[in-house]
Amino acid sequence: MILALESSCDETAVALFDPARGMIGEWIHSQIALHEKHGGVVPDLATREHLRNFPPLLVSARAHDGFSSVTEVAVTQGPGLAACLAIGVAAAKALALGLRVPVVGVNHLRAHIFSPFIKLHAEDPAKFTSVFQGRLPHLGLVVSGGNTLLLELNADLQIRILSTTRDDAAGEALDKGAKLLGLGYPGGPLVEKLALTGDPRAFDFPRGMGGRDILDFSFSGLKTSLRYCLEKMAVPEVQARLPDICASYQQAVIDALMRKMKFAFERAAYASIGLSGGVANNSRLRSAMAALSLRKRIPLYLAEPRHTGDNAGMIAFAAWLDRTGVDRASGLVMEIDPDATPENSATDPAQV
Ligand code: AMP
Ligand code: MG
User: Fold this and answer.
1) 6 ligand 1 Cβ < 6 A
2) From-to residues of CATH 3.30.420.40 in the chain
3) CA distance linking residue 197 with residue 191, whole number of Å
4) In this model, does residue 333 exceed pLDDT 70?
5) What is the mean pLDDT of the segment spanning 248-260?
6) Alpha helices, DSSP H only, in 14-143?
7) In angstroms, what is the span from residue 246 Cα to ligand 2's centroid?
8) Which fold has domain 136-298?
9) For 297-316, what is the HEC assignment?
10) Which of 5, 53, 247, 330 has the fewest Cβ atoms surrounding its Cβ within 10 A?
11) How far is residue 49's CA from residue 302's CA, in Å, rounded to a whole number?
12) Contact 138, 151 (CB under 8 A)
């Protein structure tokens, strides 16, 4: 059984995962309410909250069987807020020393990349490895508040990043757009809610950069275009047309993402597609991915809502997949022993 800890940003999370049975339990404390009034995550506050929240979450998890079945502790090693990561790593090392089991550092983005497959594992743990192998090569899209990644998971289980964003992440574009509209934080869900009754063709916003030769994303032009659009409108008109503006803005983000997915298919063939990260909660984006999967006649793996945002379940799952011998050579994973610090590690999370 793997005991996993996650504290890279504003979620404190603990999970227990048994490879033979699936996810045994997940405990999470979100700090959204705390950071909301500041319009974004305040690192010092987040660090303090992790210190405060790990003990009760761990006590709840320990109630399971006193941690007697834990054979490994996994912890998010990075990328993330340095002081927040340090709290998780310190807690994981202490637990591992106390339980006399190894501790393993997990790359947070790698965990997001694998998270759509947690559900597949839960459906039949015994058959997972063979079914999973049949779904490769896999084209994955990780869309969160801090990252936008288009990636390939190869048949030999190596990850190749095909593209990232050159400026804002997809979630950041939605958050910044929402801020311009005075909607609050995080903006993605608020934009989605207003967009439900709006017309996605009402406003013409740009769909990212470049043609089929460029897979990189860019969202800063979209945000600027919204600002110019709002400057030309009177406040009552903006208020009256909020649903149309939100629907059009959201559609521009989705179209920009789907366009690059389409271009990736022009370069290679894939046996499955996947979607993860906080923006994967967006139902219109999920529908667009479902339509692509139908057109390509390949399965779609969507991270379940509890595994889209930051969570410890995906950290445990990635630690397990890596323990099965996956992708050791890629440099995106490494083991840490209780005496080593992540700063001494050979893996630079910033490379991902
Ligand atoms: P993460 O960075 O993975 O914690 O995810 C947070 C990001 O996901 C923020 O930018 C949110 O605005 C975005 N997000 C969350 N839910 C939705 C949604 N339903 N639609 C669009 N974006 C969302
Ligand atoms: Mg994350």
Assistant:
1) no
2) 2-126+305-344, 136-298
3) 11
4) no
5) 98
6) 32-36, 43-62, 82-99, 108-114, 118-123, 128-134
7) 24
8) Nucleotidyltransferase; domain 5 (3.30.420)
9) CCCEEECCHHHCCCCCHHHH
10) 330
11) 30
12) no
* C-beta atoms surrounding 290 within 10 Å: 14
Contact residues for 182 (Cβ-Cβ < 8 A; gap 6+)? none
Taking alpha carbons only, the member of 233, 344, 277, 229 closest to residue 113 is 277
Q: Closest ligand 1 atom, CA of 283?
A: 19
Confirm or reject: Cβ of 309 under 6 Å from ligand 1: yes
**DSSP class per residue in 127-139:** THHHHHHHT-SEE
Q: How many other CB atoms are there within 10 angstroms of residue 177's CB atom?
A: 29
CATH superfamily of 2-126+305-344: ATPase, nucleotide binding domain (3.30.420.40)
Which amino acid is located at 13 in the chain? A
Nearest bound ligand to CA 188? 1
> In angstroms, what is the span from residue 236 Cα to ligand 2's centroid?
37
Torsion of CA 335, 340, 343, 347, to 10 degrees: -20
Decide: helix, strand or coil at residue 282. coil
- CA of 344 from ligand 1 middle (Å) equals 32
Instruction: Specify whether the backbone of 80 is left (phi greater than 0), alpha (psi in -120 to 50) or beta.
Output: left
| Mean pLDDT value across the chain | 90
Residue type, 76: T
Read off the pTM. 0.89
Contact (CB, 8 A) for 139 and 107:
no
109 and 79 in contact (C-beta within 8 Å)? yes
Q: Give the 3-state secondary structure of residue 272.
A: strand
- 17-55 pLDDT, tens digit each: 999 999 999 999 998 888 888 877 888 999 999 999 999
Taking the centre of ligand 2 as the mean of its atom positions, its distance from the CA of residue 202, in whole angstroms, is: 32
SS3 state at 27: strand
pLDDT band, residue 157 (cuts 50/70/90): confident
pLDDT digits (tens, 9 = 90+) for 47-89: 999 999 999 999 999 998 899 999 999 999 999 999 999 999 9
